[in-house]
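We modelled the chain as a single entity of 206 amino acids. Its sequence is:
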Amino acid sequence: MKIKICGLNPARDVQLCIDLKVDFLGFVFYEKSPRNLNLEEIKKLQDYKKKNSLFVAVTVDPSNEFIKKNILKNFDYIQLHGSETKERIKEIKSMGLKVIKVIKVKNEADIENYKKYEEANLILFDTPGMEQSIKFPENLIAKLPKGERFAVAGSISEHNIDNMIKLGVNFFDLSSSLESKFGQKDHLKIKNFMKKINNLNENTSV
């Protein structure tokens, strides 16, 4: 089971997530978001020993200049929420980054869009409202492709993850459900969620 936590603050949240063995740590570069990072904060990421965690830059239609100046030396993955084509994904990968391509799902037909992005290293299925914490419909979760390349976002929490696992999901992306204040992560919620994940992993390995 893999976990990505998005909307982290470099100074406050990173060491906790590394210590809790969160697989992917996401940092938002989107001016309309309350979780948007000041570019100066990127420098703090160089202070951490990541161990097995990976850093992800969450972006919307980033320019080559932005990628080369801010992303290349600081992040392992770039997450693309924009209108990127498969050619654009190839171009970004050629710079030396791995790519997570987001597929917005309103209905069953939208799911098939992932097939356009074979070049992406990972596919993230998300609900339409960026950062609005819309719940992913159960009837659509069951229809998603399964495997380590496919992640799901959309109001995931310790309260519904059991059911999502039963539906075949094993790669989860969380953000607002781990906050007590909009845009600010709650460390107790993160600890509780990862404890739940560890317990689930132990039970499935027995």
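As a brief sanity check on the tokenised model: The radius of gyration is 16 Å. The chain has one domain: 2-205.
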